[in-house]
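TODO from last week: model Cytochrome C.
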Amino acid sequence: MKRIPLVLTAAVLAFSLSACGGNQQTQPPANQPATEAPATETPPTTAPSGSYDAATAETMYKNTCSGCHGQTLEGAVGPNLQKIGSQLNKDEIMGILEKGKGSMPPGLVTGKDAENIAAWLADKK
């Protein structure tokens, strides 16, 4: 009888950890050349918080962040981000992405991907 709660607890813990840590990269293996993006892709968008590619930012967000912050930024386990740009600027959001905050671990998104997502989120007002 004690095995069922233990197995259930382990399953819930595994699911919770995997939801926030799904940092999936879409880069080809080192021995294969990268393919060019299709011509139908949305061009980068320039906005008040800087230049960023909104389509790429949204895709990265959905692959990496939506498990905790919701598909439409509504918040789930993590806070609501729908109007985060009215509270934090791009640099402040970058700091959270780099260092983590609360139960969010640092470094889920790094480099240019983090800058792109930070700029995209900074425009959510």
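Done. Residues 6-19, 21-29, 32-47 have pLDDT under 50 and may be disordered.
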